[in-house]
From TrEMBL:
Official protein name in the record: Phospholipid/glycerol acyltransferase domain-containing protein
InterPro entries on file: Plipid/glycerol_acylTrfase
Keyword set, alphabetical order: Membrane, Transmembrane, Transmembrane helix
Residues annotated as domain Phospholipid/glycerol acyltransferase: 129-250
CDD domains attached to this UniProt entry: LPLAT_MGAT-like (cd07987)
Species of provenance: Iphiclides podalirius
Keyword Transmembrane: yes
TM annotation in the entry: 31-50, 62-87
Family matches, as Pfam families: Acyltransferase
Length: 401
């Protein structure tokens, strides 16, 4: 370190004199080049003289957990592309691979992909499902809370197909169909960009369908307080009323502790989302927390209910699941501890923790409107409703592959 400081003066003088000889001061462009060269020279000398190697190693060690936190979500993207490759391989070599094993190459590919996701859920998150008996044998509409990454839907669909040979259709945002390499996977797993008519047709054909009313908006701008961000979205209620099917509410404990979005960029991401309709909020996490999916009792079809009333009823059912099974606010360390020892909630809240008006409509409790709607609205992230006025169902819901 002492030797570097002693020899720095002559070295600087020699390099600077050499630099000055190479420039033509009559040429204006050379002034710019000279400025850049001098700045680069002094920055380099600064690092040469003042940056300690041990400090650099310490800084790298210190930042490693932060880097890993943002890299772990990429594992999910890698798994999605592996699933897509599996579908491509089965499609290309279906006559060789599937012959004698499965009559339908898509069925064989689904089994391989679902086995991959079920293994990941079991090993990394200790994934479990409770209330599976609440899913009826016939068609039904599954409504769930959307995490930053909806991995709970990946795991649920995988387990349903592996152990019950039941394939559930899902609704996805249109941007997912534009991602290179995903088309075969989305088609094979029956992921659709649904409108009200398409979704109702799927249910009338005897299939089950999953929808998240909050969609990518709830994924990006939700937090560990687990508030519903449905606003005035009632498309799923119209689907259920038109198809005359029951609705099964769903919530996965600790889904926000597994993956989270960066909160301090929320304002910028909100403006970008309103302009582009593309989710750009950075996601971090990938923590191996305990994930448990809770399926509530089915809400039967009732033709006397309006879509708005049905929306409030389903929102209340999901908020009840959150109140019963989720600590609010969520805690990553406690969620990690639950992999070893499951700690029940110590107390129940007298009223929904998520606020009575997060879905944008006043809840009816004993036929009286909620008096704190205005307060909840001011505390939540509110999008300009004019940007959502011409958006169909598939653009305000996001169901994963």
């Amino acid at each position: 370190m002492v030797d570097n400081q002693c020899t720095a003066g002559p070295v600087k003088a020699y390099i600077m004199s050499d630099l000055l000889k190479k420039f033509d001061f009559d040429n204006t462009n050379d002034y710019v080049k000279l400025t850049l060269a001098i700045v680069g020279f002094y920055v380099g000398m600064f690092y040469l003289e003042y940056v300690d190697t041990e400090y650099s190693l310490w800084l790298t060690w210190f930042l490693t957990p932060l880097i890993v936190t943002f890299l772990l979500p990429a594992v999910i993207i890698v798994l999605i592309y592996i699933s897509s490759i599996i579908f491509h391989l089965y499609r290309l070599y279906r006559m060789r691979v599937v012959d004698g094993v499965q009559n339908d190459w898509r069925q064989a590919a689904r089994l391989a992909v679902c086995a991959l996701w079920d293994a990941h859920g079991w090993l990394w998150h200790g994934y479990d499902i409770r209330g599976l008996e609440n899913i009826p044998d016939g068609p039904c509409l599954l409504i769930y809370y959307h995490g930053a990454l909806p991995i709970d839907m990946y795991y649920l669909n995988a387990r349903l197909f592996l152990f019950k040979r039941r394939l559930m259709y899902t609704v996805a945002d249109r941007f997912m169909f534009k991602i290179p390499g995903w088309s075969s996977l989305l088609e094979g797993l029956c992921v659709i960009p649904g409108t009200v008519q398409t979704c109702a047709g799927v249910l009338r054909a005897g299939n089950s369908l999953a929808i998240s009313p909050g969609g990518v908006y709830e994924a990006q701008f939700g937090d560990h307080y687990y508030r519903l961000n449905w606003k005035s979205r009632i498309g799923f209620a119209k689907v259920a009323q038109e198809a005359k099917v029951p609705i099964v509410p769903m919530f996965t404990r600790n889904v926000r502790e597994a993956f989270r979005t960066v909160g301090w960029l929320r304002g910028v991401c909100l403006r970008l989302y309103a302009a582009t309709r593309v989710p750009l909020a950075p996601v971090y996490g990938g923590f191996p927390v305990k994930l448990v999916t809770h399926l509530g009792e089915p809400i039967p079809y009732d033709g006397a209910l309006t879509p708005e009333q049905l929306q409030r009823k389903v929102a209340s059912a999901i908020e009840k699941l959150i109140e019963e099974h989720q600590r609010v606010p969520g805690n990553i360390l406690l969620a990690l501890t639950e992999r070893i020892y499951e700690m029940p909630k110590k107390r129940k809240y007298s009223k929904p923790v998520n606020g009575a008006c997060q879905n944008g409509l006043q809840k009816e409790k004993e036929d009286s409107p909620c008096g704190e709607c205005d307060k909840d609205k001011t505390n939540s992230v509110v999008m300009d409703r004019t940007t959502l006025s011409n958006v169909d169902l598939c653009e305000v819901t996001d169901i994963p592959v």
